[in-house]
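PROTOCOL LOG
Step 1. Enter all chains and additional molecules of the complex.
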Amino acid sequence: MLYNFVFVLLFMLGFYTILIKKNLIKMVIGLNIMEAAVFFWVIAVNYRGGVIPILKNGVEVVDVVNPVPQALILTGIVIGASTTAFLLTLIIEINKYANSINMDFLKGLRD
Amino acid sequence: MKGINTLINKKSLYNLLKKREFHVSFVLLLLSVFLFSNFYYVPEQEIFSNSTAEHIINSGVKETGSLNLVTAILYDYRAFDSLGESTVIFAAVSAIVLILSFKTLPVSSKGLSFIVKRTFGILTPFVFLYAVYVITHGHLSPGGGFQGGVVLGTISIIFSIVYGSAYDYENYSPKAKTILETGGALLFVFLGGLGFIIGGYFLSNFNPTRSGLGTLISAGSIPYINIGIGFKVGAGLAIIFYTMIQKTYVEE
Amino acid sequence: MIILEYLLIFLMLISAFLAVIFQEELISIICLSVFSVSLTALYLVYKAPDVALAEAVIGAGLNTALFMTAISQVRSGKKHYISEEDK
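Step 2. Run joint prediction.
Step 3. Record the structure below.
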């Protein structure tokens, strides 16, 4: 039950950062924290005691940790890194043309 | 005195309630109560009989020939998802190069001091050896194509930071990086087509148990898919880093 | 094992809280790197070595490097030179 508390706390922390902070880079940091919370929860739910999923010489061990969520989380981590890289290039391009990364200043430019 | 104090307290409480942080915190508190009360009922995970995980644990080694079950899932049972993931990396690299390409000549940095350059001259071949080990031993120990590919990409990052980006441009030009990346992706699709000819469906594993169990050349097509993905991911991340550090201002 | 798990969860929560609360961007990025390292150790306690390797190289290595390049391009000071044929 501990992992439920930790997941909700981290998820709300990242979400609060995206909604409140005015710096664009802080929003990307909040997105990273939210994704890490979800990955942590999926691995923590599936741990019921056991050994790592690498079998030695084909000997069958009955008590092996479930290997399916680990393959899914691996894909998720790589996609999260690609998304972060693309968001940071958009921030660099915004700074080149408006010379600021403050959200209030950029909203005023629209008028 | 007492009247003025209560007036000031009421006004500051009213100002506090009007702030944006208070409204957002209240909504997030309700959302967290809702999430927690629903996640409370997720059962304690055990491996049910006749499910996917049971089948993979019992007969994964016999069917694919690799000792690492996570690699067997990622490159044999679910190899199509790995193809989609490398497509996502390819799309991100293309979008970044499209946005940030410059027409003027970029300015190069000079690199760090002499001690750091000599230390990394000794250290970099061992990093390369470790990357090749993690890529090719994906089916025997923890590792695989994605992890080893990122380690391979950090060699270009080391060249850019320690020796200056002009050194990276001469020894490891963007044309060579593009050839490596597209070569890795084409190797993946070619192995899929080969599986289609031999096995009957796209990306099937050909001859999984021909050689011994636990040696380096075993498990059919899994080591070659690992090599293709390793090159693709490494070259892609090197292209991203090299594109993002270009500066085009003239020094005053 | 249980003490190690609780200590790592505590370190993770503290570093995430510190990453949110500071005003400068450089301190937030370093706290995010500490968060990634503690998450790697936690994946090893939960017996998932492949995920731990991926989180170590990507989370603590590549993400930090990308954030640092973004900050160095964004710091105000020199105006960027956009040539006439680019406009």
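Step 4. Note key features.
Residues 49-74 of chain C form the longest helix (26 residues).
Chain C touches chain B at residues 49-50, 52-54, 57-58, 61-62, 65-66, 69-70, 72-73, 78-81, 83, 85-86 (CB under 8 Å).
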